[in-house]
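Hypothesis: this fold can be encoded by more than one sequence.
Test: take the structure tokens below, design a sequence, compare later.
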């Protein structure tokens, strides 16, 4: 069957209209696009000293991607040349026009003249240069063409030039449309643009070996470091299918197809492409040539290992375990220690889904260091630190372990793991409630990775580490009331990680959480309730917890209590200590609202014990504040003030603005309650001090637009001013309270009967 693209592309491996399986048997063949490049090089040599230094530099930088990249339409090539040197672009166009509108002998003469570039004592082009090698490959490929193939090449060149002329004619006609035909003209233009855009990003014929290798390596690098700059999944798959149509045994194309399928979470296609990759690797003999007799077995064991990783990624743990056992068996038979270490790391990942064990991980780190696998050893240390952070180990010991891994990173120039380590430190400091330290680590990573557009491989600014750090940064700004800055960070995240990218779920969750907190602060519970579904889709535990918070705010106490109890049992089962403590604090608040203050005490003591056991300092401070409020309600404000002194400092240093306001409000309540037994003069001083603390709390609440808390503070201040006989200040607070009270009426709960 004759090839569809035979009339446009001239692969010397074609005989009788059939493409041979080994389409990359020859490195290059002549195409109309490459003839346009040859004309560009010829005109560049003719221009010589007429070109300025800046123009020559621009053209030299342009040449390499043009030579290595896939074929492109003439219009796009002309535009690229015009940006560097408009005069040269005009010369190239005229030369191509003369050749396309002339005779066949003009093309023959052009190729004969190309050889003159290498003659003379000082040739225009050196034979061993990049341009020289390209010219020699094209001359050689042209000389090998038969007469019929030369004629087809000339016909294709005419068609290539005529397509560009037609497009220019269409563009000119569109510009001459009248106002009455403008809408119709735009629609026609859009219809014509669709195939042209596809033509610009794709090549409708077979790529040469160098073009295919360049295309695959470029796309694979972009998928790893900057997915937004890579082709879309559909476009990339179309390109890969085109490559595989001309060479089904091109193993690297199958592997890139596997990576592309992972982007869209396509289990079937990714498994299919992965198996085809290793099948072609064995059939082509590439592994056997480089690894001797072990090449076949090596492909099999790494195929099983990659298959296990694929199943683990999609949550198919049973299939992953079977594939991993197969990989271990083959690796043991071949005595492949490197493969066994990778298997050991994946075995730990699979087993931690069932039970927590550091034994396998520690053994993996030691063995990886022994066999000189720094990348694997560093990943093991990172996983070990993460596990021990959740187990409540001291922060200084974890940072020492990360320091040891950083030495490995810098010693072996593992830039990707440096980013992961900094992101890990940011998350650990956030877990321990040290927002200032987390902010410092986040800024460290951001200063290392510039937000400006950079070349791939120089700085990796679109990796998961970068996304994690930016999400933490957005949440930190939102907690401090800088919602505009948080919105800007999230906007930048949406640009860097579009919704269809693999790390988009990170910023989606943080965006929903920030919107939820703002809606709760503003008293818009119906909006907060509508956001719960989105949070649940991204993180079920966070979604259930926030649903309980909404129910609690709407005074649906029994429903909230049932939900929190179920969530508590689940979190205890999966050992999510941070969420367990948060749930216990919410349950205690439910008991306060139900006037069961004594029942709340054991719950708070349990939360305090857990937070101290797992070194969660910030949660421990919040729990102490809740205990102080319980003591205030139970009639021992002096004791409440004493324990507040130990807990308020971490909250003011590292806490969210809302928590700072609640802490200062609680201090003022305790001061007023303690002043009942004071002498008149001392009582006045205590009340004035409480008013100052209330002013500070009011500032914090206003920063996050928390109207309900502002209303409570104003009510309390009005009462204090009335007691002190300050009528003007009392009336001002009463007026502001009335405005907020009309906007946010009470729901049957006493105003000053809650910590928050």
């Amino acid at each position: 069957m004759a090839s569809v693209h035979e009339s446009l592309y001239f692969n010397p491996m074609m005989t009788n209209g059939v493409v041979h399986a080994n389409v990359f048997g020859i490195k290059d063949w002549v195409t109309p696009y490459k003839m346009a490049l040859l004309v560009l090089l010829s005109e560049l040599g003719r221009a010589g000293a007429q070109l300025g230094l800046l123009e020559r530099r621009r053209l030299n930088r342009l040449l390499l991607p043009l030579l290595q990249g896939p074929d492109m339409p003439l219009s796009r090539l002309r535009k690229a040349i015009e940006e560097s040197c408009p005069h040269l672009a005009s010369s190239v166009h005229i030369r191509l026009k003369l050749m396309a509108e002339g005779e066949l002998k003009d093309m023959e003469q052009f190729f004969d003249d190309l050889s003159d570039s290498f003659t003379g004592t000082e040739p225009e082009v050196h034979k061993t240069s990049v341009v020289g090698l390209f010219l020699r490959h094209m001359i050689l490929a042209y000389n090998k063409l038969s007469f019929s193939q030369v004629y087809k090449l000339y016909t294709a060149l005419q068609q290539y030039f005529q397509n560009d002329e037609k497009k220019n004619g269409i563009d000119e006609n569109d510009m001459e449309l009248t106002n009455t035909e403008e809408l119709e003209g735009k629609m026609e233009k859009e219809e014509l643009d669709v195939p042209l855009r596809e033509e610009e990003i794709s090549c409708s014929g077979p790529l040469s070996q160098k073009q295919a290798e360049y295309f695959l390596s470029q796309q694979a690098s972009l998928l790893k470091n900057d997915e937004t700059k890579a082709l879309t999944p559909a476009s990339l798959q179309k390109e890969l299918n085109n490559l595989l149509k001309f060479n089904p045994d091109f193993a690297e194309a199958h592997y890139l197809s596997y990576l592309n399928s992972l982007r869209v979470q396509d289990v079937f296609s990714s498994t299919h492409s992965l198996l085809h990759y290793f099948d072609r690797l064995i059939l082509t003999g590439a592994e056997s040539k480089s690894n001797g007799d072990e090449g076949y077995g090596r492909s099999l064991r790494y195929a099983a290992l990659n298959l296990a990783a694929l199943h683990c990624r999609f949550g198919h743990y049973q299939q992953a375990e079977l594939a991993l056992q197969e990989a271990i068996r083959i690796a043991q038979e071949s005595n492949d220690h490197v493969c066994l270490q990778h298997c050991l790391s994946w075995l730990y990942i699979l087993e931690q889904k069932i039970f927590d064990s550091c034994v396998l991980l520690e053994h993996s780190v030691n063995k990886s260091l022994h066999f000189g696998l720094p990348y694997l050893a560093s990943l093991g240390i990172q996983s070990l630190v993460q596990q021990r952070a959740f187990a409540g180990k001291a922060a200084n010991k974890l940072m020492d372990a990360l320091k040891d891994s950083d030495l490995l990173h810098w010693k072996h120039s593992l830039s990707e793991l440096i980013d992961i380590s900094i992101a890990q430190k940011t998350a650990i400091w956030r877990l321990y409630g040290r927002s200032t330290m987390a902010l410092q680590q986040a800024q460290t990573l951001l200063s290392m990775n510039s937000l400006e557009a950079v070349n791939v491989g120089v700085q990796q600014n679109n990796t998961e580490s970068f996304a994690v750090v930016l999400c933490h940064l957005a949440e930190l700004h939102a907690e401090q009331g800088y919602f505009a800055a948080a919105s800007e960070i999230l906007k930048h995240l949406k640009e860097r990680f579009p919704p269809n990218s693999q790390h988009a779920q990170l910023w989606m969750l943080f965006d929903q959480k920030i919107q939820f907190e703002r809606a709760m602060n503003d008293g818009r519970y119906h909006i907060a309730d509508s956001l719960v579904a989105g949070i649940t889709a991204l993180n079920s535990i966070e979604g259930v917890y926030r649903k309980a918070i909404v129910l609690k705010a709407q005074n649906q106490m029994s429903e909230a209590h049932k939900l929190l109890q179920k969530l508590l049992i689940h979190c205890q089962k999966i050992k999510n200590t941070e969420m367990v403590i948060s749930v216990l604090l919410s349950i205690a608040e439910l008991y306060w609202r139900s006037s069961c203050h004594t029942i709340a005490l054991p719950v708070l003591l349990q939360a305090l014990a857990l937070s101290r056991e797992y070194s969660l300092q910030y949660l421990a401070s919040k729990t102490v504040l809740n205990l102080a409020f319980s003591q205030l309600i139970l009639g021992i404000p002096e004791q409440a003030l004493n324990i507040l002194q130990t807990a308020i400092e971490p909250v003011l240093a590292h806490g969210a603005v809302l928590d700072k306001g609640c802490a200062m409000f609680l201090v003022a309540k305790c001061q007023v309650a303690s002043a009942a037994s004071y002498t008149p003069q001392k009582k006045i001083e205590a009340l004035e001090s409480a008013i100052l603390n209330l002013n500070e709390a009011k500032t914090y609440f206003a920063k996050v637009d928390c109207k309900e808390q502002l209303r409570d503070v104003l009510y309390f201040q009005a009462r204090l001013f009335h007691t002190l006989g300050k009528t003007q200040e009392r009336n001002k607070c009463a007026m502001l309270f009335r405005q907020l009270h009309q906007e946010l009426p009470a729901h049957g709960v006493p105003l000053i009967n809650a910590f928050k």
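The CA atoms of residues 312 and 550 lie 35 Å apart. The longest strand covers residues 14-15.
Hypothesis status: open.
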